[in-house]
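Issue: ligand-bound run for 4'-deoxy-4'-aminopyridoxal-5'-phosphate - logging full I/O for the record.

Environment: standard queue, default settings, no custom constraints.

Inputs:
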Amino acid sequence: MGVSFDKIDGVIWYDGKLVPWADANVHVLTHGLHYASCVFEGERAYGGKIFKSTAHSERLKRSANILDFEIPYSVAEIDAAKQLVLEKNGLPDAYVRPVAWRGSEMMGVSAQSNTIHLAIACWSWPSYFDPAERLKGIRLALADYRRPDPKTIPALAKAAGLYMICTISKHKAEREGYADAMMLDWQGRVAECTGANIFFIKDGKIHTPIADCFLAGITRETVIELARKRGIEVVERRILPEELNGFTECFITGTAAEVTPVAEIANWKFTPGAITKQLMEDYTAEVQPKKAAA
Ligand code: PMP
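Outputs:
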């Protein structure tokens, strides 16, 4: 295990100021901690520039609105703060973690007037670059928990509370020797993994679940665009677990996972192939900072 995340040497942007890493703390009586009134983002910087920074800042603001609070900074201010944190920590290839939460003024279910806080940290996270090793594919378990009905919880927000079942599911999968777990949705259809979206391939066409009861990933959207640019058809539809027998390739997408091939989900087997490899390469090219036109 590496250095504990509260002990990294660096600076964190905290409510508008850069503070030493060790000073970026919250009190134990914080609404965000007790009642999960907390939203966050996961982003990656490549060569000093955050990929789709504005889309992530917009999603952060949107997630907060869904939880009935307003982050007191604009999208442009959040974008600038993220860039500043990267530069001050001297990290060109990094994971960026903005987090916003309700503070301590009221400690009950109701927290109408609590202060909204925003912090932004980043840490070194180089991209995984051995394509041959990666193409072997990861193994996924099938999670016991399902993604909840959007009428049960605001399923489209990137909110802390939604990750409770993800951590439980991922821990169980890891104990059984899997890398992660695939989750079904509340109606028993294929949904996503604990922190990544999922895609399947059959007869040269890509199939992926409709993102209406789980996070519609920014990587998912990027990969769909990249595939269509290559002339590969992408079908967003309901996918039943019984259908998994019929797919030849499978991969997952996410800011952290990028495009990661899958070799196995419980008893279903896949062989990472040409389309997965192509999209891994296209995604790696896409995230590189664009050179300004001459
Ligand atoms: N689903 C979940 C549950 C996630 O945590 C993530 C990672 N943010 C994703 C999907 C992929 O989203 P993105 O591509 O925006 O990182």
